[in-house]
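All the exercises in this workshop are built on plain-text protein records. Instead of coordinates, the fold is spelled out as a row of discrete tokens. Once this layout is familiar, the rest of the handout is easier to follow. The record below serves as our worked example for the rest of this section.
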Amino acid sequence: MARHTRYALLIAAAAALQAPQRRRTAVTMAAVPPGGRVLAVGNGPVFLLAAKTAAKMGYKTTIVSAREELFTQLLWSEAREEPRDPNLTVLGVTRDEDVEAFNDAVANADGLIIAFDAEQTLTDTLLDVVLPATGGAKRVACLSKHLNGKGYGPFVAASKTAANKEVWAASDKQVQMYRDFENKLKSKLASREGSGLTIVRCGTLKGGGPASPDDPIPDDVPTLSEKLYDDLAKDIVNWQLLFDCDTRGVALTPGDSAEGPGLRAVFTACASDASPGDSGRVQVCQALVRSLARDDAEGKEFGVTTAAAEKHSSDAEWAAALDSVL
């Protein structure tokens, strides 16, 4: 046991326990009900924001943190005196009660969100933990990448090396990694009666914070705190903040059809305006969580791109955008 990290200890212990499961009245692939229980796994800002968004939309949401202080600083703005959301439970990795709570969250989840900022996927071991053979989430929303290869190539790869290491360059190796994981996830869910999957695709992830400190954010559009910009900023001009100011619209593409930046890659790598190949973290997280609430999102996939707007999209605009791709 000593060989494992604290996080792995928690996961392994949770996998070995059997928590009581709520009785499910019928086998269904319906949407996660209002007030349902959601487990979020992944890493980076997009993972935290997805969990915060789920909690804001009324889901009882659970995540695990090995860096509780940093997570707290990113989730809740001290400058805005932002109160913590009681719907979001952040478990630690050291206490026995955390293991029990995590096991309960896995066993009784209605929905699961998988969202990685880094170019990686869940390991087989962790996938088996968060989606056990019996019980657990029936609806899964998984963040993946644009994999069709359109608008990618050497110019995009060069921009990743020279301008922004977080650029999604769709290399053959990474594309295959995501495809393998998607197939694995589909196969696993197919073996679990009544389970369904929505794949939300993205390109280069940008933004995710509150934009200008003086710019009020609607209660129903959560963001991470201003600390995000300190962690992401690499340039004198904070283009991540500017992106959050100017690129608040929703733009979705059906299936796996979104194109990359192509020859413009060197200019779009650190661009704050709406550009091909980019996806805003705020919009990606809205898409992930909103897909859980829709019956017609089961078995579907769609991409999140960018749209210039000074205001965040309304519920009606989101509904129309999702209607167009589902």
Observations:
- The first strand starts at residue 37 and ends at 43.
- Strands lie at 37-43, 60-64, 88-91, 111-116, 139-145, 196-202, 204-206, 252-254, 278-280, 301-304.
- Residues 35 and 58 are 5 Å apart (CA to CA).
